[in-house]
Design brief:
Length: 158
Amino acid sequence: MTKTEMKLNDTRIQLEMALSRENVEKPDLVKSCIHAFITNARSVTVTMQNESNASAELAKWVEARQEQMRKIPLERFFYEQRVISIQQRSVKSNRRFEKIEKMEPDGRGLGPGGAILVYEFEGFDKLFPGDSGNVFSLCIDYYDYLQKMVNAWLEVMG
């Protein structure tokens, strides 16, 4: 297992801990896990770059991907969140309960609904106008993005 894969695994573990049913109602724990997720997620690409320096072809591939990443709003958002969390203050998220009128997964009615606890990143609307800013959704999307990049990198490594 490469160091990059280990960083990606650390990132996944922090996300799973934040998403865990027993942890989701513990705001301090969720905040800590999301902070660690952001830090580890950024380390994935830095570690990938360092591990690629031994091969000119691989280093060139990583450099091209990093150039593409700078244009992706999701990447820019998490980069900014890391800068905030490391250099300024803890990442802030708003916590609220959202009423669910009717639960219908897969088109099957399950009853009158209820409420769901939602965490939202503060300042998400700058890069994602109209998005909910849901912490978990954005982190899952970012993790999936990183996982695809690492898999592509591993293919190039051979």
